[in-house]
Design goal:
single chain, mainly beta, five-stranded antiparallel beta sheet, 2 helices, 33 strands, about 45% strand, disordered N terminus
């Protein structure tokens, strides 16, 4: 995939996909303990599961953070033969960036995909999980790293399975670092696949055409100063709408080419999860509570705001959320007690969010040195604990 518009600000192409053996240890694929309230017993990743299922591998060291997660993109049932898009997480490691994806429809354990080494990563943004045209689950990634002995930020774009071969692009050096952190990526299934990028105050819209990306001219003045954000593709009257969420700043709805739209300051913006093509759920922590509000692509609020208990004494440290099935939203976080937890929200009636009576409280994934929990599917979660990554059955 060649991003023509990115090439206007980044002329250096290169890189490859690699596995660094010293950071991985193989293990027997025997039966592992089930999910429980304390241990983080690891069932291991599928090596090359993005293609063929492979063997079982454990990643025990070298994962220092930061982390990013993006749940499934909304895909109309039956579109392109895929009824379920994957969830995708990305982690920084000594070996390079690590992308983790899951094939929900086949129930496999999450699989790993490595980039080339990239030092000093400070923030990560990732597009919603979707499928490359070969059937590989993927998610485009933007990494921001501080330039040593300087006050600038260097941006790097990684296709993370969304092209063949994958690319790793220098996306430019920006001053100041605050401006360099104004990044976000989103993907929509509209028109065969559209990638939207906020790059240091500039917007780019790229359409997939035959496995490549044809990008628009840069669109200036995109939410400069708000920091890292996420973009979610929605649909209004048949046209693509970007729901751009920045934690603490609310949600902004923008047209396909990033023209200004309504700002929904009353919608929680820690994470946005599409429930249908034209309806999405905003989530954000407030103290020990999880705030939730549903909105549509026209900017209207649906139903009343909802709150859920997190089991944490104060704001949890991370937030990751995705859908599984057609009506349930799985939310995951790490509490102030160091425990990773998940909660399933019933969104079958978007205007009346609730949890089922038999699962009304958050469930513990595992404890210890937990730093991030990613809800990959109905069957699996991925946990960053210490300097390793663990694959855990969903509790």
């Amino acid at each position: 995939m060649v991003l023509a518009a990115l090439a206007m600000v980044a002329l250096q192409l290169g890189g490859c996909t690699l596995i660094v053996a010293s950071k991985l240890s193989s293990a027997d694929a025997g039966v592992q303990p089930a999910a429980d309230s304390g241990s983080c017993a690891d069932q291991g990743f599928d090596d090359d599961s993005l293609d063929d299922g492979g063997g079982v591998f454990h990643l025990d060291s070298g994962v220092g953070g930061p982390f990013a997660f993006h749940g499934r993109a909304w895909v109309d049932p039956g579109a392109d033969g895929f009824d379920y898009a994957p969830s995708v997480a990305v982690f920084a490691s000594d070996a390079g960036l690590i992308a983790v994806a899951n094939l929900e429809v086949e129930g496999r354990r999450p699989g790993l995909r490595f980039s080339q080494p990239l030092a000093g990563v400070r923030t990560l943004s990732i597009a919603a999980g979707h499928y490359y045209n070969t059937g590989s689950p993927c998610g485009e990634v933007m990494a921001v790293a501080d330039v040593p002995f300087d006050t600038t930020a260097a941006l790097t774009f990684w296709s993370a399975g969304c092209s063949d071969p994958e690319i790793f692009i220098d996306a430019g050096v920006y001053s100041s670092r605050t401006v360099g952190s104004d990044t976000g990526i989103g993907w929509s299934s509209q028109d065969g696949g559209v990638l939207g990028i906020h790059l240091a105050g500039t917007g780019l819209v790229c359409a997939e055409e035959g496995g490549t990306q044809n990008c628009s001219s840069p669109v200036p003045n995109q939410l400069v100063g708000d920091g890292p954000r996420s973009l979610e593709g929605m649909v209004a009257s048949g046209a693509l709408v970007w729901a751009t969420a920045t934690p603490g700043h609310g949600v902004v709805l923008q047209s396909t080419d990033f023209a200004s739209g309504p700002q929904l300051v009353s919608v929680p913006s820690g994470a946005v999860v599409p429930l249908r093509g034209d309806i999405a759920l905003g989530l954000e922590f407030s103290g020990s509570r999880l705030n939730a509000r549903v909105f549509n692509s026209a900017g209207l609020l649906l139903g009343d705001a909802a709150q859920f208990d997190t089991g944490s004494a104060a704001n949890p440290s991370t937030l990751a959320a995705t859908t599984y099935g057609t009506t349930l939203v799985r939310v995951a976080w790490v509490g102030t007690d160091g425990l990773g937890r998940v909660l399933d929200i019933d969104a079958s009636d978007p205007a009346n969010l609730h949890v089922s009576p038999d699962a009304a409280t958050p469930r513990v994934v595992c404890g210890g040195q937990v730093r991030f929990v990613a809800p990959m599917s109905s069957k699996w979660v991925v946990v960053a604990a210490g300097e390793g990554l663990a694959v855990r059955p969903a509790p």
